[in-house]
Structure formats: C-alpha cells, structure tokens
Amino acid sequence: MNIRCIAIDDEPLAVKKIAGYIQKVPFLELVAECRNAAEAMSILDNSIVQLMFIDINMPDISGMDFVKSLTNKPYIVFTTAYSEYAVEGFQVEAVDYLLKPITFTNFLKAANKVKNLIELTANNQKEILNTNVTHLFVKSDYKLIRIELADIKYVESQHEYIKIHLVNSNPVMTQMSLKSIEEQLPSNQFMRVHRSFIVNLAKILVIERNRIVFDGKVYIPVSEQYKVKFQEYIDGNVM
Predict the structure, then answer these.
(1) What domains are there in the chain, each with its CATH number?
(2) How does pLDDT run across 15-63, given as a tens digit for each residue?
(3) In this predicted structure, what is the pLDDT of residue 159?
(4) Does position 239 have pLDDT exceeding 80, yes or no?
(5) Are strands 75-80 and 96-99 parallel, antiparallel or unpaired?
(6) Widest CA span in the chain
(7) Which phi-psi region, left, alpha or beta, contains residue 228 (left: φ > 0; alpha: ψ -120 to 50)?
(8) What is the spatial distance between Cα 146 and Cα 164, in angstroms, rounded to a whole number?
(9) pLDDT, greater one: 204 or 127
(10) CA distances from 136 to 62, 76, 128 (A)
(11) Strands across the sheet with 197-200, in order?
(12) 21 contact partners, CB below 8 Å, separation of at least 6
C-alpha cells in the first residue's frame, strides 16, 4: 500500500518540486499540494494523510508551529533553507530534515526512513496480535479442521499444498503456500528453517549435524538461508 503524502510550501516552485519527487517514488502517493497551513489543515481533516513534507518558513503560521498544533500528527519531514531549525524539528519527532536545495537522492532517503518506520510499526502490531493466537482453521477434504498451534510439530511444503504434522494425530493436508501459513503463525513460536519446512520451536528435542530430528526418524535440514537466525535462537536457549 502506498504512503499518502502532502507537500506544503508557500513557494510555488518549491512545492512543485517536492510534488514531482513524490510522484517519482513508487511507494508514495501525492494527495495534495498546499501553499499554507490552512490548506493543509483542510486536507488533513478530509483525507487520510500519512506523511507531510512541510516547509518551516511560511506566512501566518510557520510549518513548525503548525506541526506543534496537530493532535494526531502524520509522519513529518521538514524542508527548509535554514539549518538552525534542525534541533527543534527533531524535538517534534520529525523523521527527517531536508535542507534546500533538496536533491532527489536526499528526498528518497527521507522517504525510505518513513517507509521503514511504517513497516516496523505494522510488523510490531502483527506480532502483538499473533502472540494471542492459539489455533487456526484449515480446509482439508472439503472440511474446516481446527488445529491447535501447540499440537503442530512442523509444517512441510509439498508443491501447491502443505502438510501439517501433528502430535498424536495424522498429518493434515491443505492447499496453501508455506509463506501463507508462515504469516499466520506466531514468529516467537514457529520458525522457518528451510524453504520447505517450518518448525514449532517448542517441539524441538534433538538437533544433530545441523538437522532437527523429530520422532528419531524425521530429519529436517536447516538451510544456509535460515542458519544464522536458527543458531541465534539455539544460542539464546543453551544452558
């Protein structure tokens, strides 16, 4: 989903330049160009805005004072010709502070900072939600089957299907990608260790030669791509 932005500057050429930069970046969406705080407030009241590129020196009310007046602030990137406002800018939790003349390279760096913050926030929220999940339903043989997460030993990819291996029960096959179920499983309980396997960390009893052993006969390899993360988990739990 694109990040919805507004550009605010009383100088026509300056606001056009920022608007042009926004339109060049694939993950940004230009909502409006504003020449002053009043226009910006009208947009904020009537549209979803996630990011403001705002000049500081503007008539009537400065960009800094306007940002301070907002109760629910979007992400802020200040644009100005004066470096002395930098400290004050970060005091109002601005993501970045761009000095004019603004190059596209510096603009893109600021945009990426905001993108990373939004993604981090979304991942944290997802993590909080996932920690409360105790079960899931999957379609198998024209039925919906409830599976308790605590009963899953590991999940195996088989082309367009996955096989969910369970404790004291037959495996359940369902048409789903491994990536799809990975996104539904709490990352503090389950870990992908191979392109074809996700394991329940609580069910790991034996590790032998970089392989996870289940039931003394099933050997799941830990591939190079996932080895570092898995080793960090092991190191954090070795006594």
Answers:
(1) 3-129 (3.40.50.2300), 135-235 (2.40.50.1020)
(2) 999 999 999 999 999 999 999 999 999 999 999 999 999 999 888 899 9
(3) 80
(4) no
(5) parallel
(6) 75
(7) alpha
(8) 12
(9) 204
(10) 52, 39, 17
(11) 169-175, 161-166, 152-158, 197-200, 190-194
(12) 102, 104, 107, 108
Tell me, what amino acid is at 28? L
In sequence order, which ranges of the chain are alpha helices (DSSP H)?
12-24, 37-46, 63-69, 86-91, 104-130, 178-184, 224-235
Tokens of 80: 């100005």
What are the CB-based long-range contacts (under 8 Å, 24+) for 213-220? 214/153, 214/154, 214/165, 220/154, 220/193, 220/194
Single-letter code of the amino acid located at 68: K
Q: Give the integer Cα–Cα distance in Å for 78 and 64.
A: 8
First to last CA, the chain: 44
Peptide bond into 101 cis (omega under 30): yes
Q: Which residue has the tokens 């004019």?
A: 100
Provide DSSP, 205-220: -EEETTEEEETTTEEE
**CA angle, residues 223, 229, 231, in degrees to nearest 5:** 80
AA identity, residue 203: K
Give the residue carrying structure tokens 């100005």: 80
| Among 27, 52, 50, 20, residue whose Cα is nearest residue 39 | 52
Mean of the per-residue pLDDT values for the chain?
89
**Whole-number Å distance between alpha carbons of 104 and 239:** 51
**Taking the CB of residue 173, how many other CB atoms lie within 10 A of it?**
16
Of the ranges 113-122, 181-190, 195-204, the best mean pLDDT one: 195-204
